[in-house]
Design goal:
By secondary structure, this protein is α+β, with helices and mostly antiparallel strands. The protein has three domains: 2-96, no CATH class; 107-175, Arc Repressor Mutant, subunit A (Orthogonal Bundle); 189-263. α4 (131-137) crosses α6. It starts with a strand and ends with a helix. It has a six-stranded antiparallel β-sheet with strand order 1-6-2-3-4-5. Strands 8-7-9 form a three-stranded antiparallel β-sheet. The protein contains ten helices and nine strands.
Length: 264
């Protein structure tokens, strides 16, 4: 199992590894950054990243939109630092992904530039900021990008972005320019037709109705489904399949279709 992280989300990748009962070490790499996830028959038992090991290592690559992954079947975990179930881990990764989507509304990329905000004149009370917050705040000069600040402080971009976001919410930092968000990509009809076709093979003629209901549950319509919600849609539809083997077959087929779709 190998490929590019631009073709598959971290949630999907971990789901494939766990539901497929994989064993070995799943290596994720982006530039000089490397994350290693150790599995034993589908159970994640250990993970490492540039800032440590355990649970936080699994969340480290959530912000990656590119990079490579490769499963080495002979890799054996040097320690057991993760005791959570696969479902608990996937829920945490999904939650972090949703949190990151919120941060992206304010910090759309590493090129975003912030500066220290002017406090209201009537704000005379004390302000408490954690140490890392002060370190980041001192670098917000309206010229440096968030990515450059991360490199200066030698702290992962994802953590710097979360700190800047917190400072922004507290009214202590503000964008140096207007925030420009890219237009959301819409899932093309051809891909939704493939979803319906694969689902029909699994549950029969009720598939189009099930698909439509789950799209509506996301607050969307088939003609205007954001690509960002595609993974969540597949998860919702999968819950409607009671047979475990058929559910795994559907999810694996769909993740392959999505991977092929994103490749072009």
């Amino acid at each position: 199992m190998q490929g590019n992280l631009s073709h598959i989300s971290l949630t999907d990748l971990l789901l494939l590894a766990t539901s497929g009962k994989k064993s070995g070490v799943l290596k994720l790499a982006r530039g000089k950054e490397t994350v290693e996830v150790y599995l034993t028959e589908g159970k994640i038992v250990h993970a490492t990243c540039p800032i440590g090991e355990g649970d936080k290592a699994l969340l480290y690559p959530v912000t990656w939109g590119e990079g490579t992954f490769n499963l080495h079947p002979n890799g054996k975990a040097p320690a057991a630092t993760i005791n959570k179930t696969s479902d608990e881990i996937l829920d945490e990764v999904k939650a972090m992904t949703r949190e990151w989507e919120t941060i992206l509304d304010v910090i759309p990329s590493g090129k975003a530039v912030f500066r220290i905000a002017n406090l209201p004149e009537d704000n005379t009370g004390p302000i408490t900021i954690p140490n890392v917050g002060w370190r980041v705040l001192s670098k917000l000069d309206g010229l440096r990008t968030v990515q450059e600040i991360a490199e200066i402080l030698r702290i992962p971009f994802a953590y710097i972005a979360k700190v800047v976001f917190s400072l922004y919410q507290a009214g202590l930092a503000e964008p140096a320019g207007s925030i420009t968000k890219p237009a959301a990509d819409i899932v093309p009809p051809a891909l939704l037709n493939r979803v319906a076709s694969i689902l029909t093979e699994v549950i029969g003629p009720m598939a189009p109705l099930v698909l439509r209901d789950q799209i509506e549950a996301l607050g969307e319509s088939p003609d205007n489904l954001p690509e960002a919600k595609l993974d969540e849609l597949i998860s919702l539809v999968g819950r409607e399949i009671s047979d475990g083997k058929l559910k795994s077959k559907f999810e694996e087929s769909m993740f392959q279709e999505i991977s092929n779709f994103k490749r072009f």
